Amino acid sequence: MIPADNNDIIELVDKFQNEYLKHFKDHGYGIISEARIRHYYKLFFITKHNLGLKFWNIATEKTLEEAECNQKLLF
Fold this sequence. Notes:
Blueprint: H1 9-26, E1 31-37, E2 41-47, H2 50-60, H3 64-69
Antiparallel strand pairs: 1-2
């Protein structure tokens, strides 16, 4: 049964996400990091290089409250 037929939104989103990310993995982008923004949405960072992941982790380590108070500051 298709998840949409069963009104299983979470399973449907997970299947879509897996198919979407599979395309990147198939093209050599083996490093994929996810950041959840409360329960609203997810941000994905996709790269082939560990240095990119290092920058991503620094940029996303701030708490939501810090980010809202200092929107102009990345690091």
